[in-house]
Amino acid sequence: MHNPNNLSLLYETNYGTIFRCDCCNKLQVQCKHFLLHQSASRFASFNVQLENLLNNPIAKSAAPDNQFRFSAGELTLKLYLDEVIALQALYGGALAMLELQEILNENL
Known about the structure:
Largest sheet: 4 strands, antiparallel
Helix content: 40-55%
Order of helices and strands: EEEEHHEEH
Structural class: alpha+beta
Shape: globular
Strand order of the largest sheet: 1-2-3-4
Number of strands: 6
Radius of gyration: 14 Å
Number of helices: 3
């Protein structure tokens, strides 16, 4: 776990919070049931997994009690569809913030 004093808030929803570590630039994802530390590339890759599932017609018609498995590095997550939707919104917002920060840094 990183020192909380080195974490900058990146994005937050009712489902969770994403911080960026100021010392290593890894992203810390805090959700109701888990905590992840991911590099920016792993973070983006995991978001693609979430988007792919949400764009899958079979997944969209799944029963609410179905769980989906995701590989998050060394961890495998089992999430319900409503959790996948909430997590993808969290990741999508954080990715937008990362892109905005990059644009601002280029123009300063």
